[in-house]
């Protein structure tokens, strides 16, 4: 494993070189023989290269579910974690016996599990100097490069810089630009040189371009505003691919943290969130794209470049370390130039292997400490509270979130010009499996309910803006005619994720799912009186920073805050439970919304 200080010095030099637009050419160890013996081959001689890809590991090292305090398992019996990925990678490296093999990651690495959160919040690596568990794990695996995902920016630029300095390989993000200088803030690309054969055999230069997601400008505005600008991924690829080719790259691979749908979860004010198919189609000179962000499993996809007619290979390896992309390239050398003869991709499932013991050992102490922390009892619940129905039925467990958010904002605004305004609160059903058991409630139970590292903010909305917001949220549901059967499993539009459906507390309202999108809020009333909410009424609305910054493209919510103490919502929930010692729905559950069809409740 490379020392933190050594990795940090290399990264500083690399970023400085990138800022001067001078590429880094990193020599890789010679990796031995081509796929055919030149003395016996009868056709044009060919060599092969394998590129392995991971993405969206999200802080998973062990095959462990910290929220259940048990081995990870889901309905499809997937496994998770870098330790599983390492076993597959090591098997392929051994199988290839010295032939060239590169390993890349397409981002979203240091956020997503209590393990990652612990070393960003409870014992941040910026304070302790300890090596981040994802650096410990990935350094054992010996990646060749990692792309920065949007979640890399969640904990601020100092922690991100510390993590990058702990890596024994480059971190790439060509379209993250220093706002003051206009130059790359991180290394744009790396060129890895590999030998395709024994001593004296020709070498291949593989260019790897990293692209992060422009949505960072919205989702982590508080961390990056005025410091970083995030350029369009397509335009950035068009800028850097010719530079890489001019600097000798024989093969160009883009490692991009963006999906391939061509759509965005936000409005047109930012570059496209998921443009990887567009990059393949519009930018000449790219051989393959490893992509992530959307958490989809895309084994092998070919996109034709509109200018050259070349087929660009794309692959996305799901999420959390459940899958490993394998891209195989066959190459020939003609008149001193490399030519790709064929390329294809396959997908490996990590549930077919055991965890790599070296990775487990490297993170064991941190994993054990995290498990101990999340099992700390914070309160006792009078009854079991489940989130299983929170998407389509008003439930106490979601009201728990809204109640705490309302209390915090109300107390903070006491004595201010907004103190007289009613306080509403917004929460989303992040988890379908979260449960507060009857009896002891632990930190992992609260973390399982609120799985994101969001902070609490508040803005002022009018009655008309609240209605527009609710109408937008209600597009989550499929249209169900009166009398049509209702199945909770299919009641929502699969194109709208659960985290983009919000419920309000503080007002009473009906969502008529038999009506068209945009015409579904048939009742919006003040609690107690039942009086309709006036368009010009004013409310303080407690909301998380992701939504208030524009995440999900909800209308009217992107406006100046009247409250922003940078308090993490998950911790506020934990603190509330610890202070009271008892979680009783009678203290916070107020049924205030329902699904209806022509006024009749759906459930």
UniProtKB/TrEMBL annotation:
GO CC annotation terms, alphabetical: outer membrane-bounded periplasmic space
Question: A biological process (GO) annotation for this entry?
Answer: nucleotide catabolic process
Report the Gene3D superfamilies cross-referenced here. 3.60.21.10, 5'-Nucleotidase, C-terminal domain
Calcineurin-like phosphoesterase domain location: 50-296
Location of the 5'-Nucleotidase C-terminal domain:
378-555
Q: Which UniProt keywords are present, listed alphabetically?
A: Hydrolase, Nucleotide-binding, Signal
Q: Organism's domain of life? A: Bacteria
Signal peptide extent: 1-32
Against Pfam families, the record matches this protein to: 5_nucleotid_C, Metallophos
The protein's matches in InterPro entries, at most eight in alphabetical order, are given as: 5'-Nucleotdase_C (IPR008334), 5'-Nucleotdase_C_sf (IPR036907), 5'-Nucleotdase_CS (IPR006146), 5_nucleotidase/apyrase (IPR006179), Calcineurin-like_PHP (IPR004843), Metallo-depent_PP-like (IPR029052), TAT_signal (IPR006311)
GO MF, one term, reads: nucleotide binding
For this chain, the family text in UniProt reads: Belongs to the 5'-nucleotidase family.
- Protein name stated in the entry: 2',3'-cyclic-nucleotide 2'-phosphodiesterase / 3'-nucleotidase
Q: What is the lineage of its organism?
A: Bacteria, Bacillati, Actinomycetota, Actinomycetes, Micromonosporales
């Amino acid at each position: 494993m490379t020392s933190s200080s050594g990795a940090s010095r290399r990264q500083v030099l690399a970023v400085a070189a990138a800022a001067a637009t001078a590429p880094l050419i990193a020599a890789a160890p010679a990796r031995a023989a081509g796929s055919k013996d030149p003395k016996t081959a009868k056709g044009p001689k060919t060599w092969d290269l394998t590129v392995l890809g991971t993405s969206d590991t999200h802080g998973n090292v062990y095959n462990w579910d910290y929220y259940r305090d048990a081995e990870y398992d889901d309905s499809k019996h997937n496994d998770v974690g870098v330790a599983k990925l390492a076993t597959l990678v090591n098997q392929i490296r051994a199988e290839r016996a010295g032939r060239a093999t590169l390993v890349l990651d397409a981002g979203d690495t240091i956020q997503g599990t209590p393990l990652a959160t612990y070393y960003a919040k409870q014992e941040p690596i910026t304070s302790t100097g300890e090596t981040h568990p994802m650096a410990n794990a990935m350094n054992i695996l010996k990646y060749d490069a990692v792309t920065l995902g949007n979640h890399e920016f969640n904990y601020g630029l100092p922690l991100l810089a510390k993590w990058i300095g702990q890596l024994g390989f480059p971190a790439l993000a060509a379209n993250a630009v220093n706002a003051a200088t206009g130059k790359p803030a991180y290394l744009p690309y790396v060129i890895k040189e590999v030998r395709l054969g024994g001593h004296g055999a020709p070498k291949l230069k593989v260019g790897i371009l990293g692209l992060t997601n422009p949505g960072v400008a919205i989702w982590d505005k508080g961390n990056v505003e005025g410091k970083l600008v995030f350029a369009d991924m397509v335009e950035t690829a068009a800028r850097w691919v010719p530079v890489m080719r001019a600097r000798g790259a024989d093969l160009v691979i883009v490692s991009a943290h963006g999906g391939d749908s061509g759509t965005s979860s936000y409005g047109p004010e930012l570059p496209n969130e998921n443009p990887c198919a567009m990059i393949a189609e519009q930018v000449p000179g790219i051989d393959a794209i490893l992509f992530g962000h959307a958490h989809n499993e895309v084994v092998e996809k070919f996109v034709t470049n509109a200018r050259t007619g070349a087929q660009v290979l794309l692959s996305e390896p799901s999420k959390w370390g459940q899958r490993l992309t394998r891209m195989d390239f066959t190459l020939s050398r003609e008149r001193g130039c490399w030519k790709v003869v064929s390329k294809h991709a396959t997908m490996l499932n990590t549930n077919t292997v055991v965890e790599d013991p070296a990775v487990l050992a490297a993170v064991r102490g941190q994993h054990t400490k995290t498990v101990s922390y999340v099992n700390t009892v914070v309160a006792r619940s009078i009854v079991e509270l489940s989130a299983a129905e929170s998407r389509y039925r008003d439930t106490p467990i979601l009201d728990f979130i809204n109640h705490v958010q309302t209390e915090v904002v109300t107390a903070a605004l006491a004595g201010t010009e907004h103190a007289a305004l009613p306080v509403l609160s917004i929460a989303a059903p992040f988890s379908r499996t979260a449960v507060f058991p009857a009896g002891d409630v632990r930190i992992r139970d609260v973390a399982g309910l609120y799985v994101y590292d969001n902070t609490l903010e508040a803005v002022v909305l009018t009655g008309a803006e609240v209605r527009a917001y609710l109408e937008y949220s209600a597009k989550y549901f499929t249209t169900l005619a009166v009398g049509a059967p209702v199945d909770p499993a299919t009641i929502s539009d699969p194109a709208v994720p659960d985290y983009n459906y919000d419920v309000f507390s503080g007002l009473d309202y009906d969502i008529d799912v038999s009506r068209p999108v945009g015409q579904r809020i048939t009742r919006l009333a003040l609690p107690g009186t039942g009086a309709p909410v006036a368009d010009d009424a004013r409310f303080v609305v407690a909301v998380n920073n992701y939504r208030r910054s524009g995440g999900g493209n909800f209308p009217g919510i992107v406006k100046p805050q009247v409250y922003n103490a940078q308090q993490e919502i998950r911790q506020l929930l934990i603190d509330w439970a610890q202070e009271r010692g008892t979680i009783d729905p009678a203290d916070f559950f107020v049924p205030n919304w329902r699904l209806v069809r022509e006024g009749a409740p759906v459930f």
